[in-house]
Design a protein that fits this description.
The complex is a heterodimer of chains A (473) and B (241). Chain A is α/β, with parallel strands linked by helices and 473 residues long. Chain A contains 16 helices and 19 strands. The chains are: A alpha/beta (473), B alpha/beta (241).
Chain lengths: 473, 241
């Protein structure tokens, strides 16, 4: 049983009571909603004649279905338009703030929360989206929930949860050139498995984590769920505070930063905190990691051979064989040279400004391969606008990338951005499940944004460190 | 019992029997609409579930497979049943493929028997909603992804677990006995089929919630309004409502 961790402290502060079923009822500090998982919950509330309890602690955005090309209303896709209209009506009726595309603040829910300064240390944050774990990068306790739980939160601003164990993942050392936060989390999932985190919350710590900016920490916490852990977090530090101080929320509420900082400091894990498990990883040894299969745990270093299924744990062998058949890869080969048709730079994992900057430096002065269609989908309108001001848009467009508006896009293919047929995609997103990117024969190779850029240029999976210009994180 | 061919709207009707309380999803009936403010909602206890089985083999079956994202472009859960496992059940021209859910012998099944890490990936409640609306009342598996299991519980669907050997044995038995009843006793943590009874595990919180009929937590939590306000008042970042 853990004690003295951030998780234990934040849990206790938000615990309302223990329910008769043994679960704890927790107060929710921030409830983020979007168009896909919330309409049914609003419908359930209407059936029960219950009002939204705390619209002031609720924030809405639209991301999953929003078109990234032509965003004029009504959307050309009737289903998308209906979902958008339903969300507009629900937030209007309940008086919930909505970052719609006309505000210039719209974006993927896990990009806009931190941008707005509403993702803060020591908060409990929930959203009907499994990548809510992203917000743990700020030392928040953040997790994805289902629609019936959204109903609970809308109705009561609380949620019923069982307390979990805490695993500390200590990442020592320094990342080498071309290796990023994404590679750390892909390596963690590769080692611990896609279900290794079930029943756990992950605390990411160590020199390599502390050295990361907030965006890198978000990339890591984002994919906690791919390793089975519903939440992951990093203890807040000066890097966290610098980000927060710059946000509109703290700029517009003078005194709030200094008033809240002692609370943030108080919920950091104690030096003598006790963990249920500790795992150590050496960042110095990491190289860019890419996936060869159809789960995020099926990853391999770019210079390492794709594993023989027979050498894997017994319960992973069958999945590995089917994955290799689907991906058309051979054990013993490396992923280098794997032909790609599409390059997707986007998603709540890797579509923030530094991600685009690093990729742009790879792309600059080069051209997208003739056989590749390449697209950049910024994580938010803010990211998009800043990137355009910095000239990143020009760099990408001159190289032959399509520059799009903000949204989830080809990460899950709920809008028109989809793989076709058996296209192979070098993707900075988080899931390589069969069918994930919109085509059931599509093939997804997950990798860091620099690697996506390199693949777009060469038309095949490429070790970015072998290109002339390499970017340090 | 469901008898129409799949896929069809009739797949919305469920057919398993929850004992001893009336099933929340009796044949052809919608769940009762709750318009009483949430204080007197009758949430049935789910002490046991009985029905015939359907084996779905494979580890790491993710929610994108259970319900592909394109079927989530809807504002209600109605009608999702026919899209459960759609891409594994139908080809590009919507012709049925080899899949247990397309086989006549499993059309009345209400107990799905799965392997490890079932329901991993996205938090979409559309996944258990689709299975429930196809006719599934309970799942037995080696292990379940956490958010998926929580979503099932919120619908009153047990997700009980057993070791690999037990599950593979049960999957084989279901194949050999598609008309044979599987009796899940949630309270006693046993599963009975044919002449066999095996011990299974039901997470303690889940068991209590199902058996005591407190798996729908809205009313339960709403009744703690004063305690909620007291907790919020102690949090430095929350302004008073």
């Amino acid at each position: 049983m853990s004690s003295g961790t951030l998780y234990d402290k934040v849990w206790e502060k938000h615990k309302v009571t223990t329910l008769p079923n043994g679960a704890d009822q927790l107060f929710v500090g921030l409830h983020l909603i979007h168009e896909v998982t919330s309409p049914q919950a609003f419908g359930m509330l209407r059936e029960r004649d219950i009002d939204v309890a705390r619209p002031d602690l609720t924030l809405a955005t639209v991301d999953h279905i929003v078109p990234t090309a032509d965003q004029s209303r009504p959307y050309s896709d009737d289903a998308a338009e209906e979902m958008m209209a339903e969300l507009e009506e629900n937030v209007r009726d309940a008086d919930i703030d909505f970052l719609d595309p006309t505000t210039g603040e719209q974006g993927i829910v896990h990009v806009v929360g931190p941008e707005q300064g509403l993702t803060q240390p020591g908060k409990t944050i929930v959203c009907g989206d499994s990548h809510t774990s992203t917000h743990g990068a700020f030392g928040a306790l953040a997790f994805g929930i289902g629609t019936s739980q959204i109903r609970d939160v809308l109705a009561t601003q609380t949620i019923a949860m069982d307390k979990q164990k805490v695993r500390k993942i200590q990442v020592d050392g320094e990342l080498q050139e071309g290796v990023e936060a994404k590679d750390i989390i892909l390596e963690i999932i590769r080692r611990l498995g896609t279900e290794g985190g079930v029943g756990y919350v992950y605390e990411y710590a160590g020199e390599a984590i502390e050295d990361l900016g907030m965006e890198g920490r978000m990339s890591i916490c984002n994919m906690s769920i791919e390793g089975g852990a519903r939440a992951g977090y990093v203890n807040p530090d000066e890097t966290t505070y610098e980000w927060l101080e710059e946000t509109d929320y703290f700029q517009e509420n003078p005194g709030e930063f200094e008033r809240l900082k002692p609370y943030w400091e108080s919920i950091r894990s104690d030096d003598d905190a006790e963990y249920d498990d500790v795992v150590t990883i050496d960042a110095n040894e990491l190289e860019p990691v890419v996936t060869w299969g159809t789960t995020p745990g099926q990853g391999v270093g770019i210079t390492d051979p794709i594993p023989e299924p027979d050498t894997l744990p017994e319960d992973k062998q069958d999945t590995a064989r089917r994955a290799q058949e689907h991906m058309r890869v051979e054990p013993g080969d490396t992923m280098e040279g794997y032909d790609i048709d599409v390059a997707f730079l986007g998603s709540c994992t890797n579509a923030r400004l530094p991600d685009l900057r690093r990729a742009a430096r790879i792309v600059e002065g080069r051209e997208v391969h003739d056989d590749v269609r390449a697209m950049v989908v910024p994580g938010s309108q803010r990211v998009q606008n800043t990137a355009e001001e910095e000239g990143l848009k020009d760099i990408f467009e001159e190289a032959g990338f399509d520059w799009r508006n903000a949204g989830c896009s080809m990460c899950l293919g709920m809008n028109e951005d989809q793989l076709e047929g058996d296209e192979a995609c070098a993707s900075s997103s988080n899931r390589n499940f069969i069918g994930r990117q919109g085509s059931k024969d599509g093939r997804t190779v997950l990798m860091n944004p620099q690697m996506v850029a390199a693949a777009a240029i060469s038309g095949e999976v490429t070790d970015v460190r072998e290109l002339e210009e390499v970017v340090s994180v | 019992m469901r008898s129409e061919d799949e896929p069809s709207e009739s797949s919305e009707a469920s057919h398993g029997t929850a004992e001893p309380s009336p099933s929340p999803r009796e044949d052809g009936e919608e769940r009762p609409v709750r318009a009483d403010g949430g204080d007197d909602i009758d949430i049935p206890s789910v002490e046991a579930v009985s029905g015939t089985g359907i084996p779905i083999r494979g580890n790491d079956i993710d929610t994108d497979q259970i319900i592909p994202a394109r079927f989530m472009k809807v504002v209600t859960f109605d009608g999702l049943g026919e899209f459960a496992f759609f891409d594994l059940r139908f080809d590009d021209d919507d012709n049925p493929k080899d899949h247990p859910m397309n086989e006549d012998r499993y059309q009345d099944a209400s107990v799905m028997v799965v392997n490890s890490n079932f329901g991993c990936g996205s938090s979409r409640e559309h996944a258990p909603q689709a299975l429930m609306r196809w006719g599934i009342d309970a799942l037995i598996g080696e292990s379940f992804a956490e958010i998926f299991a929580g979503n099932c519980l919120a619908l009153g669907i047990p997700t009980v677990t057993a070791d690999t050997e037990t599950i593979e044995g049960l999957q084989q038995w279901v194949e050999d006995n598609p008309d044979g009843d599987i009796d899940i006793d949630v309270a006693e943590e046993t599963v009975r089929y044919g002449d066999t009874e095996v011990d299974v595990t039901v997470d303690e919180g889940q068991r209590k919630a199902l058996v005591d009929g407190i798996w729908d937590t809205t009313a339960l939590m709403k009744s703690n309004e004063q305690a909620i306000a007291d907790t919020a008042a102690e949090l430095p970042y929350v302004e008073q409502a």
